[in-house]
Amino acid sequence: MSCEKCKDLCVRFAIRQPHELRRAIQIVKQNLDDGTITEVSNSDSISQVTFAALAKGEQWDDIVGYRFLCSSCGELFSLHAETYHGSGGYWEPENRESVRENL
Ligand SMILES: [Zn+2]
């Protein structure tokens, strides 16, 4: 159940290259800054680096994994990637039925 505010984020964005991960991080940061989404804090997160640090330009871990929540409708989003072997990952809504487009 996505809403007007987060519908632009309801896409499956494939991350295959470092610059695509960097771009995804920037888009997520903009949406955090304007209050569209909030980070779901997870004490047993697989990432050592906080998202805030990443957004400031810090280098990511071998495994990137963050979750976010639309502040209007509660849609859950996931940013995840495996960077060490370069197999990549995705930005995507956790609910597959919310994916409007594959990018
Ligand atoms: Zn929403």
Model description:
With 103 residues, the chain is an alpha+beta fold. It has one domain. Helix content is 20%, strand content 30%. A hairpin with a 5-residue loop joins strand 4 and strand 5. The structure holds zinc ion. Zinc ion (ZN) binds at residues 2-3, 5-6, 70, 72-73, 75.
How does the SSE layout of this entry go?
Layout: E1 11-15, H1 18-33, E2 37-39, H2 51-55, E3 63-70, E4 76-82, E5 88-93, E6 101-102
Parallel strand pairs: 1-6
Antiparallel strand pairs: 1-5, 2-3, 3-4, 4-5
The site of zinc ion has 8 residues, from loops.
Quick summary of this structure?
By secondary structure, the protein is an alpha+beta fold. The chain has one domain (7-96).
